[in-house]
Amino acid sequence: KAGVTQTPRYLIKTRGQQVTLSCSPISGHRSVSWYQQTPGQGLQFLFEYFSETQRNKGNFPGRFSGRQFSNSRSEMNVSTLELGDSALYLCASSLGRSPLHFGNGTRLTVT
Amino acid sequence: KQEVTQIPAALSVPEGENLVLNCSFTDSAIYNLQWFRQDPGKGLTSLLLIQSSQREQTSGRLNASLDKSSGRSTLYIAASQPGDSATYLCAPSDFGNEKLTFGTGTRLTIIP
């Protein structure tokens, strides 16, 4: 069974641009969560989607948004990029109450 | 607001030793608690999940315990191997949703 797939693996953007990251969950998993990992703040929860609905949201500004499609694939978008948005963005999927399975992440660098 | 602390922040032990990693959390109203490992530049690998009603879980050389009332969990690694070198993270989940709150992790180095 294929794991969680995140694309692209690396991304370099400049301040003010926007970016879209993609996540394909494990087949059959309907819950997709996104996390941001930085050296200073560690791992922080962004949001969680289930059956195309956002069920939970972390404490991030409105520049961070996401969506989930009918096939459970998810995208997250960050608009008006800031230097502080440089991070490893991790996506995780689950069946609901099962362990979270993480992808290898997208490393975003904002210059 | 849940806060998670992991002690120690870093640990180096010789191969073959048994070791314990500690995790404490401030809000005992959790649904479950997961332990993960993270290798450099990679995502997280789930090691063990303990439901709030359970006291411990075992998988191979790993054993995780949970004392919800005192807000503590431990991860015991038996007969450590160099391949166990990684950062270990604990993450309790809020009751009723998939949101995990992560600790800052323990960076473990096993010396051959």
Give a description of the structure:
The complex is a heterodimer of chains A (111) and B (112). Chain A has 111 residues and is mostly beta strands. Helices cover 0% and strands 54% of the residues of chain A. Chain A has strands at residues 5-7, 10-13, 19-24, 31-38, 42-50, 53-57, 64-68, 74-78, 87-94, 101-102, 106-110. In chain A, a hairpin with a 2-residue loop joins strand 5 (42-50) and strand 6 (53-57). Chain A starts with a strand and ends with a strand. Chain B is an all-beta fold. Helix content of chain B is 0%, strand content 57%. Chain B has no helices and 10 strands. Chain B has strands at 4-7, 10-14, 19-25, 30-38, 44-51, 56-59, 62-67, 72-77, 86-94, 106-111. In chain B, a hairpin with a 2-residue loop joins strand 6 (56-59) and strand 7 (62-67). In chain B, 37% of the residues are buried.
Produce the secondary structure layout.
The complex is a heterodimer of chains A (111) and B (112).
Chain A: E1 5-7, E2 10-13, E3 19-24, E4 31-38, E5 42-50, E6 53-57, E7 64-68, E8 74-78, E9 87-94, E10 101-102, E11 106-110
Parallel strand pairs in A: 2-11
Antiparallel strand pairs in A: 1-3, 3-8, 4-5, 4-9, 5-6, 7-8, 9-10, 9-11
Chain B: E1 4-7, E2 10-14, E3 19-25, E4 30-38, E5 44-51, E6 56-59, E7 62-67, E8 72-77, E9 86-94, E10 106-111
Parallel strand pairs in B: 2-10
Antiparallel strand pairs in B: 1-3, 3-8, 4-5, 4-9, 6-7, 7-8, 9-10
